[in-house]
Amino acid sequence: MNGKSSKRRRAARERLRRMLERAKAREELRKESRSAPSHAAQAAASAGNATPKLASHGPAANGKRPAAQGAVGRGESAPERTVSREDRDWERQRQIDALERDVFELTQLTNPNDRSADDIERIRREVEELRREFYTHLGASQRLGLARHPQRPQPDDYIRLLFENFSELHGDRGFADDPALLTGMAWFHGSPVMVMGTVKGHDTKQRLIRNFGQAKPEGYRKSLRIMKLAAKFGRPVLVFIDTPGAYPGVDAEERGQAEAIAHNLREMSRLPVPVVVTITGEGGSGGALAVAIGDRILMLENSVYSVISPEGCASILWRDAAKSESAAEALKITSLDLLRLKLIDEIVPEPDGGAHYDHAAAARLLDASLKRALEELSQLPAQELVEKRYRKFRSMGEFFA
User: Under a CB-based contact definition with an 8 Å cutoff, are residues 159 and 165 in contact?
Assistant: First the structure.
């Protein structure tokens, strides 16, 4: 046993030595993260060109002249393609993830009383700082990737972590139940509330059942039924949104998808109870807006909210979905952009690295914002609540006038 322990300690020290040698690489990553041009600047530069060009067709970043047209296929090498900013960002993230795994394994192998323990702790703090800095400077396209992360907590996770005695309610009392929209009653800090959330599903089977979070008319009519129950019994409504949009299928259109969304918009605008909406991941188009007419609109730090997906926008404007990164910047889909435009009320911070790293911590951060919002709104009489909600949405977009 002693021989095995000694061998593992020697292996740990060797790995520590290799990690110390990576210090220079970490410094290079940090410098690159600080000095790289912003996504907004790149989008503005590309928007100024009448005809967008591939990076490899312009002056090469390394100073080399591009190959002449038609050179490829006659024995000459193809022109070098410039690595996109998005690719560089995800490569930095991959390296940071590898460093974190190394630190964790070293911590498990090293005796806490060993002299190398202090070095490991110092490296751990450096890696945490590197990750924090990296996620602070992400662009719109990278935040969209985080909003769609498969391990990101979904509304049903927040319901489980934030509420007590949740009791799900099913059906629209007209056609069927829609699993894409989860609704029910619960208790929040000792008070009864109504809860709704669009759920994508956590694995392939769940995603098929939940229709990837895309609600149908019966889902929106179910949510309206729940909101009317909330109005009848004086319960606040808490809504959690993570959906790419309403279901665009023929069967949904046959059952009145547009009418169901429009009906929700009208009825939600005059609900006499507090409505707090939280964008937890994707807030896509009218499918999200149909349950997002609230007195307070909260967004998690790495969530997105948009009238159309960047891929759809790029396909319409440039006939090329590959230009989604430029579209994401132009659409202003991030929480910071929307707060500046006064389309949301508050940004809820996430744990370092994103909500998918720590579901419980993300729920605790959201819990504080929800509690504060409900306490403020509960002080207002119903008539004033409805009037303020009306003025809030009527004032949106005044900067275009």
Answer: no
- The closest of 364, 348, 332, 351 to 300, measured between CA atoms, is 348
Q: How far apart are CA 96 and CA 104, in angstroms?
A: 12
| Tens digit of each residue's pLDDT (9 = 90 or more) over 182-234 | 999 999 999 999 999 999 999 999 999 999 999 999 999 999 999 999 999 99
CA-wise closest residue to 215 among 198, 202, 228, 201? 198
- Measured CA to CA, the distance from residue 344 to residue 279 in angstroms comes to 10
The rounded distance, in Å, linking the Cα atoms of 370 and 269 is: 20
- Mean pLDDT, rounded, for 236-265: 93
- 3-state SS assignment for residue 69: coil
For the stretch 272-324, pLDDT in tens is 999 999 999 999 888 899 999 999 999 998 999 999 888 888 989 898 878 88
- Name the burial class of residue 332, with classes exposed (0-12), middle (13-18) and buried (19+) by CB atoms within 10 angstroms of its CB: middle
Three-state secondary-structure class, residue 300: strand
pTM above 0.85, yes or no: no
Dihedral class, residue 154 (left if φ above 0, else alpha if ψ from -120 to 50, else beta): beta
Dist. CA 84–CA 74, nearest whole Å: 27
pLDDT computed for residue 55 by the predictor: 35
pLDDT, residue 322, reads: 81
Structure tokens given for 357: 């790293």
Give the contacts of 75 (CB within 8 A, at least 6 positions apart). none
Q: Give DSSP secondary structure letters for 147-186.
A: HT-TTS--HHHHHHHH-EEEEE----SSS---TTEEEEEE
Q: How far apart are CA 181 and CA 357, in angstroms?
A: 25
Pair 244, 309: CB distance under 8 Å: yes
